[in-house]
Amino acid sequence: MRLLIPVLLAGTAMAAVDPGLLNLVMPDAKIVSGIQVDQAIVSPLAAYILNQMQPNDPGLLKFITATGFDPRHDLHEVLAATSANNSALVLGRGNFQISQITAAATAQGGAATLYNGVNIITGPGQGSGAVAFLDGSTAALGDLDSVKGAIDRRGAGKPSLDPALAQKAQDASAANQAWFATTTPLSDFLTGKLGDSNLNNLSQNNLFQSILQASGGMNFASGGIVISGDAVTSSAQNAQAVVDVLKFLVSMVPVNNSQLKSLADAATFSANGSTAHLSLTLTEDQAEQLFNGAPKKIGSARRN
C-alpha cells in the first residue's frame, strides 16, 4: 500500500474527474484534488521522470510480482479528499488483481475483514490505515472509517458532497491533468498547517480571510507545464489586493537567483471581478530542472 503514495505525488484533450470516484467522496469533504494519470503519463515531463527511475529496482519488482500491480502502467486516475476533521480518503481507478493483492497483504501480516461485501485490508500495526477494492478497477485508501464510508456510498447516483465543491472539482479537472478545488475559506484551510507561527498568523489576516474559494492545477502541455489558479474573494477590491500582493512578492525575488527569478518573472496575475487569477508557464527545461534539482545534469540525462 505504501508504494501507492509516491504515485499521488508524481502527478491533450482532457476529461473531467471520473463521476464514479467523485460519488465515493465523503459528504463533508473540504478539499478535493486529483491527477489524470493516463493523460499526465504521456507528457514529456513524465517520460523524463520515468527515465530517471530505476526500472529494475528490487523493491518495486518484488511488489509487482507479489501484487500483480505495476503503478507505472496499472493506475489510471487518482482522486483525494480531505474532510472537515482532516480525515483523508484516496480513491483510484486502475487494474487491480484483488485476490493477489489481498494474499500479498495477508502474507505480510495484514488482515482482510469483510464489510458490506468488500474485503477491507488493514496493516499489522495500529493506525496503519486501510485499503479496499470495491471492484477490479476501483480502490479506496485511508483511515478505516473513511474507507467504510466509501464502500457505503458505492452505487450512488450522484455525489454526496457539497454541489458547489463537486462543480468546482469538475471544472478544475476538465482544465488540468493535476488539479485541486476547495470551497473552504483559505484562512480556515491554512490554520495550523503552515508549520511556522508567523506564517500561520499571516494566514489569518484580512486579505487571506477574504479568499472564500480556490482552485487550480497543472496542465502538462507538449512544451512544458502550465500552472494556474483562481482565488474567489469577497469583493473585486479584495481580488485586486490579492493580485497586488502576489506581484509585490514576486518583485522581492533576489536577482542573483537566476532560475527562481526567471520563474517569478514568467508568472502573470490578473483580477476579473472578485476572482484573482495566476498563471505560470514552465518550459520543459525549467520543469526538468525543478524536478531534478541539478540543472547541470539535464543535458546528460536527456542523452542517456
Main beta sheet: 12 strands, antiparallel
Tell me the Rg in angstroms: 21 Å
Number of strands: 12
Structural domain tally: 2
The proportion of residues in beta strands is 25-35%
Average pLDDT, all residues: 81
Structural class: alpha+beta
The portion of residues assigned to helices is: 25-40%
N-to-C CA distance: 32 Å
Tell me briefly what this model is.
By secondary structure, the chain is α+β, with helices and mostly antiparallel strands. It has helices spanning 5-8, 19-22, 37-40, 44-52, 58-67, 98-107, 144-153, 163-175, 186-190, 197-202, 206-209, 236-251, 258-266, 284-292, 298-303; strands spanning 29-35, 75-83, 88-94, 111-115, 118-122, 130-135, 138-142, 178-182, 211-219, 224-233, 268-272, 275-283.
Give an account of the 3D structure.
The structure is a single chain. By secondary structure, the chain is α+β, with helices and mostly antiparallel strands. It has 2 domains: 2-153, no CATH class; 184-303, no CATH class. The protein has 15 helices and 12 strands. A hairpin with a 2-residue loop joins strand 11 and strand 12. Helix 4 (44-52) runs parallel beside helix 14 (284-292). The protein is globular, with a radius of gyration of 21 Å. The model is unreliable at 1-13 and 294-304 (pLDDT under 50).
